[in-house]
Structure formats: C-alpha cells, structure tokens
C-alpha cells in the first residue's frame, strides 16, 4: 500500500505540484470542464432515451444489460482509448485528425504539396526523432509511405474524412444536446408540445453561437463552475436513486450481463448499440480540444471527476427504472427527485448549452489545422487569448454551424433520429482517429506489434460493430448528416487538389535563372529607390509573375524581396525562427527571398 501511495504521489500528483499552484490547477480544471467535457457530460440526458427508443425494454434484465453496456462503453472508449492512449499521440499539444496527419508528415514525407525544405527540419520545435536502424518495420513503413502515391492519398483521404465528420459533429452536437435538455419541459409541464420544444431549442442555439466570439478562456471561466455543479448534480441524483430505489444495479459491473442481454434478443441488443454509443460522444472533442489545455489536466479531470459522476448518473437512472418503471425514454428527467426537478432542469439546460460549445471549439481547431495544410479555404481567424495561441474563433464557420444546427433541429425534431445522426458523425471521426493512431504507433512510437494488433482488433472491431448499428437506422432522416459530411469531404479534397495543382503550375512556369542573369544586375529596366515585396507560393526559384513585371512596368525597386508564407507541420514556430532570408542571384542584383514560416 505504501509503495502504491508513493507511486501515485510521484507519478501523478507531483507534476501538478511542480507545474502550478493549487489555485492555478483549480482554475484550469474549471476551464477544462466548461470547454472539453460539456459534450460527454450531457450524454445522460439522451443515451437511455435513444437506446430504449430503438430497443424497447422487456423486463428488468434488459435494463441491467443496457446499463452494463453503457458502463463498459465508457470504460473502453473515453477512458482507455482516448484518455490513456489517443491523447498521448498529440502533436506537441495539438489534437485531432489533422494534428495526427501533421505529426505523421514530420516523420515521413507524405504531404502531397511538394514544398518541403530541408531547413524546416532544423526548426527547434520540429523535434524529429528519426526511426532507429534496429526497427526494420518502422523504416519499411516510412519507405512505403514516402514512395507510394496511393498510400499518401489514402492517408489524406482518412484525414479529410475525419475532419469532415468533426465539422458534421459540430452541427449535430448542439442540436442533440439542446433539444434533449429542452425536452424536459414535457415532464415538468405535460401540456408542452413538440413545436414548443423546437422553438425554444432554436432560440437557445442562436444565443449559444452569438456568445461564441467572446473566447474560450472567458466563456470557459464563466461556465466551468456551472458544469461542475452539473456533474455534482449527476453524481448526487445517482447516489440518491441508488439508495432510495434499487442498489442492486451495481451488478451491472459484471460483464456477463452484456452476454445475457445479447443472448435474450441479439437483434434488439445490436440495434440498441447505436444509442449506447451516445454515452461516449464527446470523446473525440477531448482530443480535438487538446490545444486549449494541458494533457494531464484533461486526464486528471476525467478520471477523478467526470467518469465517476457519469457512471453514478447512469446507475441512478437504471435504479429508478427498476423500481418505478415509467417511460424509459424520459429516464433522466423522470428520475429527478420532485423537489429538485426545476433547479436540475435549469442546470441541465445550461449544461446543454455548454456541451454545444465543445464541438464548436473543436471544429475551429480542425479547420485552422486544415487551412495550414492547404485543405481548406483561408478564412478570418480571431485569436481570443493573448496567452494561449490555440484559442481561436472563426466567424464564418460559427454562423455556418449555427444555420446548419437550426436547420437540423427544424427538419428532424425527433431525438431518436438526431441521435442516430450523432452516432454516424461521432463514429466517422473515431474510426479515422483509430486508423491514424495505428500508423503513429507503427511509425513513430515503434511499439511492440502485439500491442498494435490488440489495439486494432479491440477498438476498430468495437467501432465497426457500433457503426453497423447506426447504419441500420440511416433511412429515417439521419442520412442528412452523412450527406453533409460527404459534401464537406469533397470540398476539402478539391481545395487540396487545387492548391497542389496551383503550386505545381507555379513551379513549372517559374522564371529561368539564366534569363535573369542575362538581363544583368539592372534587370533590363530602371531600378528605382525603395523595397519591393512580391508575394508568391514558391519556396525556390523566381516566380513567373516577376518576369511579367519586368516586361510591363517602367521600373522596379532597387531591392526586391519575394515573400512566401509557408505552413510547417509544427504547432508553433519559435519567434526567432519564423523568417528565413535567402539571397536570389548574386549580391549585385539585390534580390532576396523571405520565407515566413
């Protein structure tokens, strides 16, 4: 016991004590709750609702089996896969599918844009670890990736598919969270109709996206304590229901009940998997929002606060259903004690609004990363914090997500159908992340092949099983989100193809150095005093547009600087390494190139 205590103190608590004071740690935990865990934190509002809508309850054993399925999904997906494994595959603090791609690009030349420079690897934040000669497997994978155009395109397709699903998730998360919370009105006020729920949900969404511009730090600090109260409410109501109704639900921790659940009715159990997955929604947001907070803060907060409260919340709902019965599709609001209904309803609505922000901020991060890799049009990006570079706001995307979410709520008002769409978007991202993490394990981590195979079989197999279940309900309206994801994927792929084509065209048409030298140091025209800046995409050579200037303009400046803005696959380039100056031609020409990295 002493040895375990020493390990806990030295390996887990000590880093927190070294890095920050208790007050700063508490401040970070509050912000993390408000930004990262809103999505997964509100899943008790709708998980059982969607599960039992898809597969109606047939006796108490079904409730225990469904609870067991939810508990082990929480343990396997958010805890083991994301918190313990995927978060470690971050790109120097950046997360998401695009960050994984950026990380892979640093270790193998898989980028389709041919503008890599040897000098990029000398940036101090590049920190490239070349695979050791002893690990033949890693070297072979690196060689295959760098020499095979088909594999490069496959990796890019996986990244773009994952990113398109993140954007789709950014639409469906606000719709699902808000409409599930507002639906509680039907329990408190039976006369409330579905049309009223839709109208209130639309108003909530407009308010939510309107305050997005105030930044992650400010909003996170304000709503963090609210979400802390929400998690405490979840845990408290769960404990109350366990004590008052039926504490025997703890037997759901025995996985044999999952086996019995499938044995009784395999088709119904399989079909309910699409609803069960909703308990793990927000797992990808924990990874995509990584740029906002330290990895250890997210891990610590999830393990010691978020996960216990979620488990207690689900167990409390199951205990209530076992004792009182009632409508299982309204399990959460029905299980709230009478005297606490309206306060909990209020905090649930606040938590739903917070949850909606989680995937919005993740979408901003992914789009910023995609833009840097030439996979998305350049948009106005507002940095909302002077301290944290990763905290951003993209106005055009914010209003686009709001319009899409409002349209989704008005078009598909059923939580069951929106829940299925939610599952499609979430699983799309999860599977792409799994594929990329497997590649990171093989290429960069270089770990034992047995561990890689186990990771692949367990998590990829589990996600394919869940995906087969949500595809079963795709015809009921949730196909809209799949079409949305495909449209976003095609847009990004075409933009990337166009960017690559544009760069290759500029390389082919660049001006010959022999022609430039033949003109002499005056370039065959008048050199007027001053500095001329010429923006172009080339990292080498003289752009063709410069030759056009020489033939059409009566004079050029005495000093010419070709300016190229180049995105390097690192989260941050140190200040003193951001500008790379080179001389073009001999000294007498006074022509330079500045690469802003």
Residue share in helix: 55-70%
Largest sheet: 4 strands, mixed
Question: Count of DSSP E strands?
Answer: 6
Percentage of β-strand residues = 5-15%
Which class of the largest domain in CATH terms?
Answer: Mainly Alpha
Any guess at the CATH architecture of the largest domain?
Up-down Bundle
How widely separated are the two ends?
52 Å
Overall domain count: 2
Shape, per Cα inertia axes: elongated
Uncertain regions: pLDDT < 50 for 5+ in a row?
A: 1-20
SSE order, one letter for each helix or strand: HHHHHHHHHHHHHHHHHEEHHHHHEHEEE
Strand order of the largest sheet: 3-4-6-5
Main structural class: alpha/beta
Number of helices: 23
3D structure, described in words:
By secondary structure, the protein is α/β, with parallel strands linked by helices. It has two domains: 2-108 and 141-496, Amino acid/polyamine transporter I (Up-down Bundle); 513-596, no CATH class. It is built from 23 helices and six strands. It has helices at residues 2-19, 22-35, 38-41, 47-54, 60-83, 97-107, 136-147, 149-182, 185-188, 194-210, 216-244, 256-264, 266-276, 283-288, 295-324, 331-334, 341-372, 395-411, 415-445, 449-472, 479-508, 513-519, 544-552; strands spanning 382-383, 392-393, 526-535, 555-565, 579-584, 591-596. The strands form two sheets. Strands 3-4-6-5 form a four-stranded mixed beta sheet, with helices on one face. The chain has a two-stranded antiparallel sheet with strand order 1-2. A hairpin with a 6-residue loop joins β5 and β6. The longest helix is centred in the first third of the chain and has 34 residues, at 149-182. Residues 1-20 have low confidence and may be disordered.
């Amino acid at each position: 016991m002493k040895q375990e205590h020493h390990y806990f103190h030295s390996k887990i608590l000590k880093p927190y004590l070294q890095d920050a004071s208790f007050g700063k740690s508490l401040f970070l935990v509050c912000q993390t709750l408000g930004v990262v865990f809103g999505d997964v934190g509100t899943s008790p509002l709708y998980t059982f609702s969607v599960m039992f809508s898809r597969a109606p309850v047939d006796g108490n054993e079904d409730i225990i089996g469904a609870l067991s399925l939810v508990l082990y999904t929480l343990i396997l997906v958010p805890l083991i896969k994301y918190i313990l494994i995927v978060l470690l595959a971050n790109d120097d603090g950046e997360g998401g599918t695009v960050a994984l791609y950026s990380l892979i690009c640093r270790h193998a030349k898989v980028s389709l844009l041919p503008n890599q420079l040897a000098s990029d690897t000398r940036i101090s934040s590049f920190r490239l670890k070349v695979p050791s000669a002893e690990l033949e497997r890693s070297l072979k994978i690196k060689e295959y990736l760098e020499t095979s155009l088909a594999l490069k395109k496959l990796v890019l397709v996986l990244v773009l598919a994952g990113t398109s699903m993140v954007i789709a998730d950014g639409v469906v998360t606000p719709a699902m969270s808000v409409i599930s919370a507002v639906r509680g009105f039907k329990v408190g006020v039976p006369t409330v109709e579905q049309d009223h729920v839709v109208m209130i949900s639309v108003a909530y969404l407009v308010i939510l996206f309107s305050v997005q511009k105030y930044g992650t730090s400010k909003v996170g600090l304000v709503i963090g304590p609210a979400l802390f109260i929400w998690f405490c409410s979840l845990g408290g109501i769960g404990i109350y229901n366990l004590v008052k109704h039926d504490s025997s639900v703890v037997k759901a921790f025995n996985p044999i009940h999952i086996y019995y659940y499938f044995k009784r009715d395999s088709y119904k159990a399989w079909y309910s998997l699409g609803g069960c997955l909703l308990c793990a929604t927000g797992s990808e947001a924990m990874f995509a929002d990584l740029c906002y907070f330290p990895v250890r803060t997210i891990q610590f907060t999830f393990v010691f606060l978020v996960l216990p409260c979620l488990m207690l919340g689900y167990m409390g709902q199951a205990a209530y259903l076992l004792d009182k019965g009632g409508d299982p599709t309204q399990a959460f609001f029905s299980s709230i004690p009478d005297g606490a209904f309206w306060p909990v309803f209020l905090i649930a609505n606040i938590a739903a609004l917070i949850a909606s922000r989680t995937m919005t901020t993740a979408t901003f991060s992914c789009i910023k990363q995609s833009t840097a890799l030439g996979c998305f049009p350049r948009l106005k990006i507002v940095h909302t914090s002077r301290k944290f570079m990763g905290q951003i706001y993209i106005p055009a995307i914010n209003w686009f997500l709001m319009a899409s979410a409002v349209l989704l709520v008005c078009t598909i008002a059923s939580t069951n159908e929106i829940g299925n769409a939610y599952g499609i978007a979430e699983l799309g991202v999860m599977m792409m992340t799994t594929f990329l993490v497997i590649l990171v394990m093989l290429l960069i981590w270089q770990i034992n092949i047995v561990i890689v195979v186990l990771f692949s079989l367990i998590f990829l197999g589990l996600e394919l099983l869940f995906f087969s279940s949500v595809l079963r309900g795709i015809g009921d309206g949730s196909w809209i989100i799949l079409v949305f994801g495909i449209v976003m994927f095609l847009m990004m792929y075409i933009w990337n193809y166009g960017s690559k084509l544009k760069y290759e065209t500029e390389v082919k048409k660049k001006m010959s150095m022999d022609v430039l030298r033949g003109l002499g140091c005056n370039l065959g025209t008048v050199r007027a005093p001053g500095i001329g800046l010429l923006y172009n995409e080339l990292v080498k050579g003289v752009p063709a547009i410069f030759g056009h200037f020489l033939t059409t303009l009566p004079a050029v400046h005495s000093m010419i600087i070709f300016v190229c803005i180049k995105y390097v696959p690192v989260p941050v380039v140190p200040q003193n390494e951001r500008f790379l100056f080179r001389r073009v031609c001999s000294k007498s020409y006074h022509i330079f190139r500045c690469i802003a990295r």
